[in-house]
Write a structure and sequence with these properties.
This protein has helices at 3-22, 28-49, 52-67, 74-93, 100-115, 119-140, 143-165. The chain is an all-alpha fold. Helix 2 (28-49) runs antiparallel to helix 3. The protein starts with a helix and ends in a 21-residue tail after the last helix. 38% of the residues are buried.
């Protein structure tokens, strides 16, 4: 492995480390802020790997996080819905092959998780999104992506179990007003 490869993989591990840290966030605002930081680092990781779909899909995902789009407002729901055709347009413009569909699918799951109103639903959809992202990382040689996808999948699953058992409760704040309790009740 060359120094360039090491730097590329280290950049990926830093970005994914931030995303993994987001699973510990008890507030939606912090989860999105930490995710956006990780996304910015991952744009560089995918650029170093030469994976255009990784760059564009992470740029859009990071933009959604930075905008702090809330699924609880009409404007937020419209913005999240608009991200889907934007992702398709980016996929067409920067198309490099069928593997790009994996990055697109991963992004769509990430956007769907942001549109969810419940903590369990948000985490479950994010878990499912790990599958196409992990495969995309495998295709492009991102050790960091494959590792992260497995770890994030498990971490989100553990957080769901803890929410369901009542052993962990996300803090509620003004920016979390629409998030339902883990059991889906009000």
């Amino acid at each position: 492995m060359t120094w360039s490869d090491l730097i590329t993989q280290a950049t990926g591990f830093l970005g994914y480390g931030l995303l993994l840290g987001a699973t510990l966030a008890r507030r939606r605002l912090w989860l999105l802020a930490i995710d956006a930081s990780g996304g910015a680092v991952l744009i560089l990781h995918w650029a170093l790997l030469g994976a255009a779909a990784g760059v564009t899909m992470n740029a859009l995902y990071t933009g959604v996080d930075l905008a702090g789009i809330s699924p609880y407002s009409r404007r937020g729901r419209i913005a999240l819905a608009a991200a889907v055709p934007i992702a398709v347009i980016l996929m067409v413009i920067f198309w490099t092959g069928p593997a790009d569909l994996l990055a697109g699918a991963g992004l769509l799951f990430a956007i769907a998780s942001r549109a969810s109103r419940g903590q369990v639903q948000l985490r479950f959809i994010a878990m499912i999104g790990c599958i196409p992202w992990g495969l995309f990382g495998l295709v492009h040689g991102s050790i960091a992506q494959v590792s992260f996808s497995a770890i994030y999948f498990v971490a989100m699953g553990v957080s769901i179990i803890r929410l369901r058992r009542g052993t962990w409760h996300p803090r509620a704040s003004a920016d979390d007003h629409g998030i339902l309790p883990a059991d889906g009740t009000r």
